[in-house]
Amino acid sequence: MQKLTLSILILLFTVVSYSASAQQTSRVLSLKDAQTIADAAEAKAKANDWTVVISIVDAGGDLVLLKRMDGTQSGSIDVALEKSETAIKFKRSTKEFEDMVAAGRLNILSLPGVLAMEGGLPIISGDQVIGAIGVSGAAPPEDGIIAEAGVAAFK
């Protein structure tokens, strides 16, 4: 009976040890991270005299931070939000969707939650997408440059 009990305890310990080591730790996008990203993006925009809205969402697509630079049109608020939401929902750049549409794949436009316009990028930590940035207010290629500057500051 003692051998059976000892065997069960060893097995239980092994299972618990394995499951604890098998759990992945995931990083969460903090407000501090979002501020770092947004500050770098804003600095890039200011350096080029572009005024934009910067939207940063977490892995669930919930808004963490929104910055609207002085002089940016109010319509860019919704566009920046949609770009960040597209990037997080599909875990890819909104430029990829823009390129698909430009190549004639117009069916992309019928996907729910897709804004096919450059300026939205996922924020990646290790192999996990932990958030996304969306930028709107300048021309789409410029929005993309600003978003890239923000993401680069996070890495």
Describe the structure.
There is one protein chain. α2 packs across α5. 37% of the residues are buried. The protein is built from five helices and four strands; from the N terminus they run ααββααββα. It has a four-stranded antiparallel beta sheet with strand order 2-1-4-3. The longest helix has 21 residues, at 2-22. The model has no long low-confidence stretch (mean pLDDT 90). It is globular and about 80 Å long. The chain has helices at 2-22, 31-47, 75-90, 94-102, 140-154, and strands spanning 53-58, 63-68, 120-125, 128-136. The chain is an alpha+beta fold and 155 residues long. The chain is 50% helix and 17% strand.
In short:
This protein has 5 helices and 4 strands, in the order H-H-E-E-H-H-E-E-H.
Using the CA coordinates, give the radius of gyration: 21 Å
- Shape from CA axes? globular
Contiguous helical run count? 5
Q: Give the ordered list of helices and strands.
A: HHEEHHEEH
What's the end-to-end separation, in Å? 56 Å
Biggest sheet, strands in spatial order?
Answer: 2-1-4-3
| Percent strand | 15-25%
Sheet with the most strands, sense and barrel status: 4 strands, antiparallel
Low-confidence stretches: none
Work out the helicity level: 40-55%
Arithmetic mean of pLDDT: 90
Structure classification: alpha+beta
Q: Please provide the count of β strands.
A: 4
Short descriptors:
4-stranded antiparallel sheet; 17% strand; 5 helices; 155 residues; 50% helix; alpha+beta
Task: Map the helices and strands.
Layout: H1 2-22, H2 31-47, E1 53-58, E2 63-68, H3 75-90, H4 94-102, E3 120-125, E4 128-136, H5 140-154
Antiparallel strand pairs: 1-2, 1-4, 3-4
Helix pairs in contact: 2-5
